[in-house]
Amino acid sequence: MRDSDNFFCIESEKQALLKFKQDLVDPSDRLSSWVARNKECCKWDGVVCDNKTGHVEELHLDNGSFKGKISPSLLEFEHLNHLDLSNNDFVGTQIPSFIGSLSSLKYLALVESGD
């Protein structure tokens, strides 16, 4: 039995996070904690997990200067209810149609701030 104050990472969701990171360009190295050897993905920058189940519930990746594409690996997060990718550099990137398949999503931010 796990104590509710301990974070633990579901391996399949950790792998999905790593796939998501592969499709991003991270010039500020904000996702430096997102590495396979770091077992506790619930403690990675921008990741919020349910403290009882360990499922990824929120991704706070705003203001990260990220470029690249938004990976379909997000579909692995059945409990994802908050996704903030605002104020990054996805200029010219289309919003992927799979975003509509994230059935648990209650908050989505993709807004780009203008210069």
From TrEMBL:
<dbReference type="InterPro" id="IPR046956">
    <property type="entry name" value="RLP23-like"/>
</dbReference>
<dbReference type="Pfam" id="PF00560">
    <property type="entry name" value="LRR_1"/>
</dbReference>
<keyword id="KW-0732">Signal</keyword>
<keyword id="KW-0677">Repeat</keyword>
<protein>
    <recommendedName>
        <fullName>Leucine-rich repeat-containing N-terminal plant-type domain-containing protein</fullName>
    </recommendedName>
</protein>
<keyword id="KW-0433">Leucine-rich repeat</keyword>
<dbReference type="InterPro" id="IPR013210">
    <property type="entry name" value="LRR_N_plant-typ"/>
</dbReference>
<dbReference type="Pfam" id="PF08263">
    <property type="entry name" value="LRRNT_2"/>
</dbReference>
<dbReference type="InterPro" id="IPR001611">
    <property type="entry name" value="Leu-rich_rpt"/>
</dbReference>
<feature type="domain" description="Leucine-rich repeat-containing N-terminal plant-type">
    <location>
        <begin position="11"/>
        <end position="50"/>
    </location>
</feature>
<keyword id="KW-0675">Receptor</keyword>
<keyword id="KW-1133">Transmembrane helix</keyword>
<dbReference type="GO" id="GO:0016020">
    <property type="term" value="C:membrane"/>
</dbReference>
<keyword id="KW-0812">Transmembrane</keyword>
<keyword id="KW-0472">Membrane</keyword>
<keyword id="KW-0325">Glycoprotein</keyword>
<dbReference type="InterPro" id="IPR032675">
    <property type="entry name" value="LRR_dom_sf"/>
</dbReference>
